[in-house]
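FORM 7B - TANDEM STRUCTURE REPORT

SECTION 1: FIRST PROTEIN
SEQUENCE AND TOKENS:
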Amino acid sequence: METFGTRLSEAVAARGPLCVGIDPHAALLTRWGLSDDVTGLERFARTVVDALADRVAVLKPQSAFFERFGSRGIAVLESIIRQSREAGALVLLDVKRGDIGSTMAAYASAYLDPASPLRADAITVSPYLGVGSLRPAFDAAAAHGAGVFVLALTSNPEGPAVQHAVTSGGRTVGQTVIDEISQLNAGAEPLGSLGLVVGATIGETCHDLSKVNGPLLAPGLGAQGGTPEKLRMIFGEGLRNVLPSYSREVLGAGPDQAGLRSAAARAADACRAVGL
């Protein structure tokens, strides 16, 4: 069984590093001329998958926008996860789960176990009950060849109050998360399966990302203010492992599939120009 790190490396080599979010929020459904209901949700998600799943390395559906429609929305999510993977894209399910013990193990089973209809290639998780609390997700990922992306340095204005707080050991909370994931990825070839989430709009940071040896998801590019040119400043030597993530910048080009493909191609070209 190949690790997620291996599969991601192969996908990036074949398709480039671009990650595109699937974020069907109400305003975007309206912009596309769709109804804010399950019918609109399904048309939106299927259009994005049909346009991009055969050409980008990673698709990143945001679970909350499907969950708000209840069981029918979750059924749509299950369907697009399956369709995306069948078309060759890796699916990073953005769920940001974080809990302890059996609850974390249940989340891991829901999203990473091949027997689950919600099974994705990787998920996002929150480490703020302690990185050790995420062990069930790490174990499930190792068992099933999946990946886990841990929030480290996020772009929201409330984030630094926690992530930049200094621990008794002299490191920031964010650096502690970075260092623990780096240790877990040590020695992995060609790339570790545990990644970090680092916002593309955080600007200069004193944090060291050079030893992570895992994928670095950089959300917030495009309409949210992040630019490919700023990624080198943020990631330094870790730039080679960055997954640049676009959502509104690409999705705003819909509902025409050709428009979505062109927007994704422009984003990929902009990232390639800075060495990604």
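SECTION 2: SECOND PROTEIN
SEQUENCE AND TOKENS:
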Amino acid sequence: MGDYHHHGARAVLPPDVQTVAETVPGYETYTWNALFAPAGTPADVVARLNLAANKALADPGVSKRMAEFSAVVVGSTPEQLGAHVKAQIAKWTPVVRDAKIELE
């Protein structure tokens, strides 16, 4: 329904601390979190949950607390989250396959 750590955003760090991406050209990795509803959840329920989640993420207290964890708060739509998940699968599938990583 929405995520709070957005691709391309720099985590909140002291100004004198460089990220890996700022020192290693082409490096990109980050964590992200999102809210998901079970498959088959009615669209109107997903819309209400998404609205509530984005409203909570817009709260200054939530943003401040998340910044303490270096999280960048970004609300999104279910469609944007779906596109993000598909992009992540496309990005990491070859990495996992080439590294011969097996899931148990």
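SECTION 3: OBSERVATIONS ON SECOND PROTEIN
Residues 2-30+43-98 form one domain.
The radius of gyration is 16 Å.

SECTION 4: SIGNATURE
Preparer initials: ____
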